[in-house]
Amino acid sequence: MDHEKLLEFNKLVSQTSDFCCNKLKYSNYTMKFYHKCWDKIYELMLKHNISVIDDDSVSILLKKIGYYKKGNRHVATNIYYLSRSLKMLLLYKKTNSVPLVLNDSQNDLLIPFSNYLKDFLIYLKLKQRRNNITISAYKRNIIDFLNYLSKEGLDMLENLDITYVVNYIRDITPKSGTTPFLAIGNIRGFLKFLHETNITSNDISAQMPRCKRILQPRLPSTYSIEEVKKALCSIERITGIGKRNYAIFITIARIGLRVSDIIRLRFCNLFWRESKIKIMQYKTGNPLILDIPADVGNAIIDYLKYGRSPSNDDHVFLMERAAVPMNNTAIYNIINKAFKNAGINTIGKHKGAHALRHSLSSRMFENNVAIPIITQVLGHENGESTNYYLRIDLKSMSHCMLDVSNVNPMFYKKMEEIFYVYLQ
Q1: H or E segment and range at residue 411
Q2: Bridge partners of 290?
Q3: Which of 103, 148, 390, 424 is the most exposed place for a label (fewest CB within 10 A)?
Q4: How far apart are CA 139 and CA 132, in angstroms?
Q5: What is the phi-psi region of residue 42: left when phi exceeds 0, alpha when psi lies from -120 to 50, beta otherwise?
């Protein structure tokens, strides 16, 4: 590596480091760790005569450090951080930023066969008219599948055969965070797209195993109003984080906003003079207008005035250290921690935002609120979705119970054979 290229590399490292310190608020200890990783990357570049950080060189270096090692789906910790450090440099060089959470599902710059993935996602959006949540699910499953293919040594999708697919499906476990039923269906759609666009000569999707999923109806998880209040009161409001967590919890519990809408809530969605929240729902794409109760409004104002980190970002709720928008996991952890600190029994129940929405709908049913109003508050597209919650309205269901009449003993006999056995 000549002197000019060395200066260019050091400048990139310095700029990436400054961004992580100033924008993402990484600690000095964390930055020392990353600088050690960047030193090792520099040594690798010298060893393999690589002078610049670009798509091709990053792909080569990832293979050299063992990130794409055949048969190794889950990389070792040292390899993971080396690859992460390398990706951070490439991302900053291309975008002048680095995401707080860096993984393959959140950037398309480092995904194997990314051009095919991009074309497929456009196809889903324009031709299939799928919504953003469905497309995200496709993207997540297919990225995992493409990474697996790359680690198994497949260089061209034209050479893909059913063996790779079957081995991948066999490798899916609950710990991988991938639901087999959803993954199989999404990958089947991707493989069919590859065949229809003449990328693969054989229609591998037709060879994939069928997996029938039988969904058993489950009662939604709900908590009593006393339990919700107890969990809410367990949140300390002294710190900025506590004020934020309290505002998020009470907003979901009182007006039933989805997590996807909470993390995307912006200042322009808050109409204080009207005491309204006006959003375009992320899940349905439909507009939603909700009243802001006094306790919810006060909690949000308290957070904005005395708890929110200084930032030019117009999202209402931000992560504390990096001052970037919240994510689904952070919201779940807030609610889960509140239930845990309050000592509420959550065994056999969900303990995230959905449980709070279910609890809200349960209270509305108990207060004889009409289904169309509940549908509007929860932001459902139609009443059919709201009918799902009818199963938790035990008070109304109790009025529908019927007495069971006595059964003639001859009912239990057929052709002189007793097929019903009384258990002693």
Answers
A1: none
A2: 277
A3: 424
A4: 10
A5: alpha
Q: How crowded is residue 376: how many other Cβ atoms within 10 Å of its Cβ?
A: 14
Q: Which DSSP symbol is given to 403?
A: P
Give the whole-angstrom CA distance, residue 339 versus residue 351. Answer: 7
The tokens of 342 are what? Answer: 């309050």
In DSSP notation, 164-186 reads: HHHHHHHH--GGGT--HHHHHHH
pLDDT of residue 182: 79
The CA-atom distances, in angstroms, between 317 and each of 247, 263, 281, 293 are 9, 7, 17, 18
Confidence of residue 323 (pLDDT cuts 50, 70, 90): confident
| 277 sits in which H/E element | strand 276-280
State the residue for tokens 């050690």.
Answer: 36
Structure tokens at 214: 């039988």
Closest Cα partner for 42 from 13, 80, 75, 78?
13
Give mean pLDDT, residues 163-178.
70
User: Does 407 have pLDDT greater than 70?
Assistant: no
Q: Residues 372-395: what's their mean pLDDT?
A: 64
Hey, what are 403's tokens?
């007495």
| φ and ψ of 403, to 5 deg | -70, 140
Higher-confidence position of 303 and 412:
303
Contact of 347 with 277, CB cutoff 8 Å: no
Confirm if 54 and 90 have CB atoms less than 8 A apart: yes
Q: Which two tokens stand for residue 34?
A: 């990353």
Percent of the chain as helix, strand, coil, to the nearest 5: 55, 5, 40
| Mean pLDDT along residues 78-95 | 86
Looking from the CA of 324 toward its CB, the CA atoms found within 13 Å total: 13
Lowest average pLDDT, out of 114-128, 168-182, 301-315, goes to 168-182
> d(Cα 52, Cα 213) in Å, to the nearest integer?
49
Report the candidate in 313, 231, 302 with the shortest Cα–Cα distance to residue 265: 313
Starting at the edge strand that comes first in sequence, how are the strands of the sheet with 276-280 ordered? 270-271, 276-280, 287-291
Between the CA of residue 180 and those of 172, 186, 229, 237, 281, what are the distances in Å?
A: 7, 10, 37, 41, 28
